[in-house]
Amino acid sequence: MFANTLDTLLRYIDRANVFLKWLSYLCLGFILLVMGYEIVLRYIFNSPTKFAFESATIAQVVLVSLGAGYVLREEGHVSISLVTERLPARQSNKLTGITSLIGFFMSAWLTYLLLDSALFSWKREEILETLSIPVYPFKFLLVLGLAFLSLQFLVRSRQYFNKGKN
Amino acid sequence: MEPNVAILIGFLVLMVSLMSGLPIFLALTLTGFVGIGLLEGFGMLNNLGYLIWGAIFKWTLLAIPGFVFMGAMLFHHGFGRQLYDTCYKWLGRFPGGLLISSTAMSALFGFISGSAMAGVATIGSIAIPEVEKRGYDRKLSLGAFTIGGTLAALIPPSVMMILYAVLAEVSLGKLFFASILPGLLLSGLIILYIFLRVLFNPALAPPSPSFSWAERFHSLIGLLPVIIVFLVVLGGIYIGVWSAIEAASAGALFSVVLCLAYRRLNWNGVKESLYMTVRVCVMVYMILIGAAFLNHFIYIAGINDMLSNFINSLDISKTLVMVCILLIMTALGCVLDVIALMMLSIPVFAPLMADLGFDLVWFGIIVISSVELALITPPVGVNLYIIKDLAPPDTKMSDIIWGVLPYILVVWVFFALLLFFPEIVYWLPSTMKH
Fold first, then answer.
1. What gap in Å lies between CA A146 and CA A155, rounded to an integer?
2. Rounded to an integer, what distance in angstroms lies between the CA atom of residue B136 and that of residue B134?
3. Which of B153, B143, B156 is nearest to B102 (CA)?
4. What is the per-residue pLDDT for B386?
5. Other beta carbons within 10 Å of B365
6. How large is the ipTM?
7. Which of A16, B5, B133, B331 has a Cα-to-Cα distance from B181 of 20 to 30 A?
8. Residues in a beta bridge with A127
9. CB within 8 Å of B117: residues ≥ 6 apart
């Protein structure tokens, strides 16, 4: 019963990360468009914008936060497979299950640290230098992304432990 | 706890976590957490959340999505294959022509895609069946393809250079131009080595068919898109029209225009390019977060001061210090991945180099070339495994390793040239407008 509920939950997390991938693609599109707009205005009309660099920098942070879980799902984070490749399949899967579990706790810790920093920004009413808008919504978006990354580690851990059993 | 003990424990944690297959960004974070915790108490970690935001909220990093997207669009819309045809038609007639054209293609491919692995996989898949068909010596050929993949990092724009510029705080534009001559020099040395080997022992590579001048000139059409993007991106930086970050965005948009102009734009190519860009950004930025914790540990443990005092106490020449660093990095490259090696070496060695009076742009070129050796040194050299996958089934890993060894010596000749003639690095940036 518990295992079924957990599997259903993990499936939803997996799907959520696939959905977040599209948002991160949108962020990439936004970066390219806003920087293109800046180039046209700066070099053709000689009237550079004030917002382009800062908004593109914000967008790249959001891109990373929303894409992190999906990239893990696609095994896109770099790691050294020297040991895991040489182990028999069952042991290798179990080891990856364990490291994914460590990944879950580590990312959860990072999420907590950033949440603390985001709350601090909120209380201090920190604002972005050029755009003059609050920083905290973007920090909370990064918190959300890291939370989904840590949950994807849990999904990965479950998948590898299941593979290790078979 | 004594810093020396914390450093030792930190190093062990790093090695164990890397070897266990933990993603590199987490291995760096874990090492930072443990080190900081041992030195300042684990409660201190709760105050370090600002490091996460600070590590990636940097406008200098904006060059990464732009350049990666540009390269990915050109790569996924078939401009790479055309490059190979052009190189082969022009260089194929020389002794060892197929290998010489593959090396030239690897260098050009560095501009299309800053990824060494993409380069070695693409060129290997095209050229290995050809060299097998023509009866080329297997060790010489596989070694050439394996080393060729490392050229991508030395040809701008490369993600490695952007990372180095961000971490060592040097001008990205200068670094790009500083790398052009060394990149060409290394390509030239590899080509010279192949040429001489085949000249003295023609049995290593039977002659390839010759092409008419009409065919050669016609093949140049394949180079045109790359030349246009090259002129727009690097030409713009060189004459001071725009910064490297603006050039990255202009290059990305220009690559879309080129795909449209050549009627090659397709949804699959765009989707692959989007994913490749997001993947590289996520991978690199998450590693930067991990590196921020590791660097904080390095700072509070005083590793740079210790190293500096140690080097001063040895009373040896600057050149010998540099040679020692290169040896350490080559040895570490045998067990570490390229990015992990980069993240470890820059914060530790760059301040030391600056103290010794070395220019950090010059050091950047040395670091980037030496970390790329990690791609071809066993047991974790990724290029070796890619080539093994592409090679005929009866190829042994030892054939590839023996094949690549002479090329590693060529890279060391390259290091020696950079050490004794640093103008190779300085000259081009010194002629820049800004």
1. 14
2. 6
3. B143
4. 83
5. 23
6. 0.93
7. B331
8. A134
9. B149, B375, B382, B383, B386
